[in-house]
Amino acid sequence: MPVFRSGEGLAPAWCELERFDIVELPAGGAHAFPRTGRREKLIVGRGAARIAVAGQVVEAREGADLDLAAPEGAFEVVEALSDCTLIRIAGRWGETTGGSGLFHLAPTDEPDRKGDPVDYPKHTALDNHFHDCDEYWIIFAGRGEVVTEGKRFEVGPGDCVATGMGHHHDFPIVHEPVAAVYFETTLEGAKRRGHLWEHTHGPAEPRPERV
Fold first, then answer.
1. Average pLDDT of the segment spanning 1-24
2. Model pTM?
3. How far apart are CA 105 and CA 146, in angstroms?
4. Terminus of the chain with fewer CB atoms < 10 Å: N or C?
5. pLDDT tens figures, 61-70
């Protein structure tokens, strides 16, 4: 099942992303994240906060992407400087990853045409693509329909879409404007970064066990 929710043991066994948490804080709020993974990442989805990480306090605003690679330590939100959304990710990914950050999607009358061809309705600017790594989308606002491994899923806040290496995936339909985190974990195979298309980069080589 490539769509799962937050919680211990809910991610498929093959996933390097083992847990995620979406925390909403009001201005002035604080929050401690107990350490749960070998590696951890904290992304600010909206707003701003003062965050303690690796012995320092940093002011992190929307789009900030913080990492904990050491086996000790944990993230702590000392103070939310405004209403904010924080996404904590924990797991066992390797040293070299594809990338991570935020993305936003809204319906458009000019859908993407540069990705691999599709046979389903499409009304967003995201391309149909694959990766030399696994990729995860964590939705924290909005609703829509994703296509991964040839199957369609309705998704909304609190859902994580897990797509294994080499499997095509797309976000063709948005019912309400979407805000989400993407995380491309350990690079494998040819270790190419970014979106890959068969018409440009050659045939995809999906990992059949990662479904």
1. 93
2. 0.97
3. 12
4. N
5. 999 999 998 8
